[in-house]
Amino acid sequence: MLPTQLSSGDATADRRADYAKMLAESGEPASAAELMEQALEVVPEWAAGWFGLADYRDKAGNAEGATAALRHLLALDSDDMFGAGLKLALRGAIDIPDQPPSRYIERMFDDYAERFDKSLIEKLGYAVPRKLAELIVETQGQAGNFRLAVDLGCGTGLLGTELTGRVDRLEGFDLSQKMLAKAGEKRIYQYLAPADLSLPPATSRLFGDDLASHRADLIAAADVFIYLGNLDAVFANVRELAAPGALFAFSVEDAQEAVGPRLGPSLRYAHSQDYIVATCRKYGMTIERSKPTIMRMDAGKPVHGILFLARTAA
């Protein structure tokens, strides 16, 4: 079956998909594509099947066929939980979207939640939460604990773990319920809830009857913007969350000289320092510190990024 474990609902099609996966893993993607085509003759509306077909055709060197499969998948799945639109954009088949589909991000991290910490820290040398927390502590100095910190895109709680002992209350928000469940196991957050940072404050679910605006003196987002693209919505949310003079700590993958968000082959977005400076200015924030860093390893190569500390208006 496909990586997402989404059944077609038909035993024959599922068996053919399983065989196709085995063929692809043994180095026969063209044969895998043929078998997946047969599965889709049985269940032509199976979105996950079209996702697999696009992948096998791509690995077999059939770029035109892969693009056609992705277009068909996007037509079937309006929520685009497989990120077909991002893949088509990289191929130049459609314009690059301002934001990745929220359903795609949610599904990806739901699938990844159980192995997230181990994969990132042990295999990819991931250290953004630690580095960002160190920068926050250096800036805070001896000023005492933060009254309330909000961890945006908290994931499994890697940044929250680094901030314990420096905050009186810690809230965490994430799009993935399974990531929130893993964060809850760490027992470091006083409040955890789902939220979609790509939406404006009125609909992002960061605010409610029991969650006031302008409440946080520290807002942090470690390795979150790579899944957001255009940052207007998240900066609007931060402006609404922040108490006067609050600190906003975040990281980006470095897009060098790119004018706006840049979508890479990893399907992640990178942002340039100029773009971040302009966005901070647009939302009434000033950058206090920025620091280049290595975010993680990817295929044996370092991923370059920038850590930022911005301050909201007093």
Shape annotation: elongated
On the 0-100 scale, what is the average pLDDT? 92
* Gyration radius, in Å: 21 Å
Give the end-to-end Cα distance, rounded to a whole number of Å: 55 Å
Strand content: 15-25%
Order of helices and strands: HHHHHHHHEHEHEEHEEEHEE
Structural classification: alpha/beta
Question: In CATH terms, what is the architecture of the largest domain?
Answer: 3-Layer(aba) Sandwich
Helicity level, as a percent range?
40-55%
CATH superfamily (homologous) name of the largest domain: Vaccinia Virus protein VP39
Helix count, DSSP H or I runs of 4 or more residues = 12
- Largest sheet: number of strands, sense, barrel closure: 7 strands, mixed
Q: Which descriptors would you attach to this protein?
A:
single chain; 314 residues; Serine Threonine Protein Phosphatase 5, Tetratricopeptide repeat; Rossmann fold; 2 domains; seven-stranded mixed β-sheet; two-stranded antiparallel ribbon; 12 helices; 19% strand; disordered N terminus
Kindly describe this structure:
There is one protein chain. With 314 residues, the chain is an alpha/beta fold. The protein has 2 domains: 11-95, Tetratricopeptide repeat domain (Serine Threonine Protein Phosphatase 5, Tetratricopeptide repeat), CATH 1.25.40.10; 108-312, Rossmann fold. The protein is built from 12 helices and 9 strands. The strands form 2 sheets. It has a 7-stranded mixed beta sheet with strand order 3-2-1-4-5-9-8, with helices on both faces. Helix 11 links the parallel strand 4 (216-221) and strand 5 (242-253). The radius of gyration is 21 Å and the shape is elongated. The protein starts with 10 loop residues before the first helix and ends with a strand.
